[in-house]
Each structure stands twice: as C-alpha cells, then as structure tokens.
Amino acid sequence: YCTGWGDPHYMTFDGLYYSYQGNCTYVLVEEIDKKVDNFGVYIDNYHCDAQDVVSCPRTLIVRHETQEVRIATVEPNTVNVEVTVNKQPVALPYKKFGVHIYESGINCVVEIPELKMNVTYNGLSFSIRMPYSLFGSNTQGQCGTCNNNTADDCMLPNGNIAQNCETMADHWQVVDPSKPQCSPGLVPTNTPDVTTRQPCQEAAICELLLGSVFKPCHDSVNPENYYKACIFDSCMLPSMDLECSSLQIYALTCADQGVCIDWRSHTNGVCPYNCPSGKEYQACGPTTEITCKSSEQNATTTKQTEGCFCPNGTMLFDHSVDVCVKTCGCVGVDMVPREFGEKFIVDCQDCICLEGGNGIVCEAHECPEQNNTSCDGQGFYQVKEVNPQDSCCPIFTCKCNTSLCTATAPKCTPGFEVQTSIPSGQCCPVYECVPKKVCVHENAEFLPNSSIFIDKCQNCICTNDVNPSTQLNIISCQHVPCDVTCQEGYELQPVKGECCGKCVQTKCVIRTANSSSLILSPGEFQNDPYNNCTIYSCVNIHDQLISSTSEITCPAFNEDSCKPGTISFLPNGCCKTCTPLESSTPCSVREREDFIVYNGCRSVDRVVVTECEGACGTFSLYSAESNSLDHTCSCCRESKSTMKEVVLKCPHGHSISHKYVYVESCSCQDTECSISQSEELETIEENDNTTTLNRIRRAISSSFK
C-alpha cells in the first residue's frame, strides 16, 4: 500500500520515502494500461504555512467509472472531514455503483470491492491498498510503480525515471479549474530540504517513535522514515503540531500489521482526540463496529483501529444511525433509542416501536377542538403558540402589539410629565400628565429645596408643599431683609428700583419747653400741653416740612374794670376777658394783622383784617303815657365793605386762592328792640361774648406780629 501524511510525506507502494511540498492537485495512482474505466486516486494539496513553503493535504479524490468521491478536510490540521459524490454531499455509509464509503474509527474508507482495493483518509493522512494480483507493475503517479522495486518508483509520465521523487512529483499535476496557476508540464519546483535550514529544536514526541511506546511494532514496521518525517514537520511547522500525523500514520500502519499501540496518552496532550457526547476514545477498537443489525457478521473481525466507539454495555444501533443503545429496539428520525413496545410522539405523529418490519409505525397526532379566540380591543392580534402540554397541538391566544395602538403621548406643560399605564386587560397604553413634584417659574422647573430667582428683592425657594389647584409645588419668597425702623416723624416709603425703601419725613417733630415731643401733621396746630399761650404748627412748603412756635400776646387786662363774676379765659385758654363796667369807645373800624386759615390751608404771611368795634346809643326810657319802657337800640356795624383775595398754602404743598370780607367803614345803625326782658338779657350776654371773642382774636393776631 501507499501512504501519505503531514506536510506531506509519501511512502510508495514499494516502500520508498520522500517529502514533497507542491500546492497543486496531483495523481497519486493511475493505471499505466487502462483496464478500469475512469479510475484513479488524486490528492489536492495547499500551502499550510505563513511563508507558503510547505504543503498539507486538503482533499483526497477517488474516481471510479461514473462516480467521483471527494473526502475534504473541514478544518485544517484536523481529522474532521466531509464526503461528496459527484459534488453532492452524502451520508455514511454510502453504497452505490460498486463504491462503498463508510467510517472506520477515525478514518473515512472508500472501498471498491470489485477491485479489492480501499482508500482511507482522515484529514492528516491517507493510505491506498491495492491487490498486487490486479495492479502489479501497472501503477503510476506519486505512489510509484507497484512492482516491489523502488528503482522505478520515481517514474515520470513519459516513462523516464527522475533523479529523485521530489522532482517526479511535480510532473504529476492534473488540470484543476480552482487552481489556474497549476497545469501539467510546468517546470518542477525547488523542493525545500530540512537539512539546509538552521538547526531546530526537535519535538519531544518524535522520540516516542523510537522509544518503548512503539517498540512492539519496530519488528513489523521500521519507524525510521516516520521519525524523519516527524523531525521535518517539527522544524518546518513548529506551531501546527503536524508531528502528530507521523505518529498517527505509523500507529495505523502498525495496526494494519496486527500491532495496536495506545500512543496518544503519552503525548502529554499534544496529540489529543476528542469524541462526541455518548462515545469514548479507544486506541484499539474494531475496524468495523458491532451493530444491532450486523453483530454476528463482525464477531470474528480481528483488525483494530483507533477512534470513537460506543461505551461498554452499549452497541452501535446501525452504521447509518450513529446512536449507541443498550437494547436493540428502534431509533427514529429524532435519533432517540426506543424499546420495543414503547409509544412516543415525534414530528407530531403518534408512534410505536415494533419488533420486525420497519420497526417504527406512526400515525397522525390528533388534537382536541379549541374554542375560537376573539381578540377584541385595540392592539390585540391572534397568534398561534406552542402548547406546553402538547407541542403538536398549538393553542391560539391574543397577543398585544403596541405598534397597532393609535393613541400618542401628549405634550405636558412644564411641571408635568407623561405617565404611561396599561390598564388590566388592555393592550394599548393610557397616557396622563402627572405632576413632577417641582416648582415652575417662567416655564422653568425647579426641584424642591432649590433656589429660584424671581427678582433681586426676594429670596425664593421651592418648597415641598403643593398648591391643590395647580398641583405644582409652592414657591415661598421672603423679602430681602431691610432696616424698617424710622425715627419719629418719618415713615418708610418705597423707592423705585430699590429693594428697601427709605425713611421720609411726613410729620413735624417739635420739642416743647419741658423737653416733651409733639408730632404734628402738615397744616395741624396744637397748644403746648402745659402752656396754652404757646401754639405749635406744621406746614409743608416746597415739599419741606417746617415747624413754627407762636406765642399769644394777650391785651392789657384790668380786672377792676370788669363786672364782678364775668372774668373768664378766651377759648384759646391763654388770655382773660370779662364784661366791662362801662365802655365809652365810639363805633369805628379796627385793624389787625392775622393769618387767614381755610380748610386747613393758611396764608403764607399775615394779612390786614378789619372789624367794627365801639359803643352806640342804646337806652330804655319810662313813658308815663304807656306806663312802660321805650327802647332805643343801635348797633356798631359795617357801613361799607369790599372783597379781597389772598393766596393760601395747603399742607400738601399746593396753593389756592381765597376771598375774604374787608370792612372799610363802620357806623351805629338802629335795630329793633322788640324782645322780652329775659331775651334782652340773653342778647346782652351774647353781645358781651361776641365782644370778648373779638378781643381774643385780636390778642391772637397780635401775638403773630
């Protein structure tokens, strides 16, 4: 047989070893004299290092008559492969038109029983076994001529013998549309030689080939060439662990000679082999595993190989159904082992595992009737869901899809935010503007306890208290602290543009003779509390308050000239007056200067005022004829007067014009005396009082002079 492995290394049918690094598709085996229609084995290599120096196998191709089998590596440097026939993926085992493809341990095997040959490939190595009786001296290609003579193993397509097989291998290119750079007849490539490289650190696992692990096989298969290949791979591709392929192909060759070696456990994890769940690795398993359907046929098989096998106590159900079972019942499309008589549901069919026949008998699964589900309400729609009690019988329910809702969220005013809620039993959300528990000023929001600027005269803060009508937090403001204390006579009045007012004088403050204080408003007069002869006043002149003090000068008063019991004070409480004993003053005009006061307004200066004063002839004579008193009455009155005008100043600063009567002349004028004696007495008393008042006025007016 012919083998190849690593990057890659070849062992011809006659046992000649060489390495070749081409990256095209090459002939491994073809017939020299074509006896079998469209027969051959080919290898597709690719550069598997970063420098594009060395190559690795990618696809093994077997052609036989109408079929082309391709075994391709799924991942580089792994034993994971996939199989296609005429470019179509197939499941294993596969048997058609004289070609049988199956798995044996870690290897994929292509067997052609008619030719008594088989080809194995696992992604890292291949082997081609052909009977000498059918193919002796009739093979050509990179596997050489099968005639037990290595001298002609490096034969070229034209029949000549190349100097070495590395040169020969280049000439066995075939046309590959996926590799336009490759074509038969190209100048041979220069083959890298490990001896020309710098000395490298040899991988320790290569020593296993010469050591005690593989010693039981040394007499059957010489490990020297495999050791050379291992060293070559460790030097050329030190990071890819390709050394494992040399140990693997040597162990496979030894197993073919009946010597099984459990070698992977000695590599310290460098060359692991992981099995899928439910299977376990065996270094020396059967080449064809016992199954429920072929146990007797394979009972006498003695050849062994490494791979993943069913654990002890279980067996493979069938080569086409890769499931380990404890008892040989049924395995359906769900790949679950079933015992005879077991009922189960698969693909929504009610099935039972029966012994004999097809094994599994199924019928359609029946579902109970369901009530019609009506999905009313906005946003709801009907969906079909998996029934947790019976996955084959879906249930219809109503689902909510908010994208079907038409309501949109409103735009809330400052201090409010949209709150979304979905009432129970509904799909579409309900939107509502709810207070955010903040204060709002000029469309700006403020959190509780934060300061708010309203104006410079107030310190404002957002409180936690809520206004029930607006549902917003209340803004509490305090005026900037001001000195609000003003002295007597002054009042605090606001000032435009200022936070705090200022003290403005609104009243006059007058110190009396005894150091007490009097506060008078403009236009107000008041006597001294302890001296009625002193009068205080307050006036507003050109927005200035001016206080004045006036002393009443009383006229000379002689109590001896008064009628007894008639002495009294004038209304001002300062000057005395009385009824005189007699008066000989004639009726005449008397002048005096005084302030004129009207409705709180007063003349700025004293003005001359006149009045009539004096005695007139008034008497009573006894008449004998009438036996009564005859009365003759005369009164001192104005005989001529005019109206004069004066300007008065009012308390608030404005002025008014006022007219008053000015007496120019006086005379005694008769008047009737038809009154009773008592009335006469009263009239006399009133006249006396009037005279007294006039005297008081004159006294007051003289005090202002």
Automatic annotation (TrEMBL):
Residues 578-674 form the CTCK domain. One of its GO terms (cellular component) is extracellular matrix. Residues 1-183 form the VWFD domain. Keywords: Disulfide bond, Glycoprotein, Repeat, Secreted. It holds the Pfam family C8. Transmembrane segments: none annotated. The keyword Aminoacyl-tRNA synthetase does not apply. It comes from the Eukaryota. PROSITE patterns: CTCK_1, CTCK_2, VWFC_2, VWFD. The keyword Secreted applies. Residues 330-399, 437-504 form the VWFC domain. Disulfide bonds join C601-C650, C612-C666, C616-C668. It is found in: Secreted. PANTHER family: EXTRACELLULAR MATRIX GLYCOPROTEIN RELATED, MUCIN-5AC-LIKE. This is Mucin-2. It comes from Buceros rhinoceros silvestris.
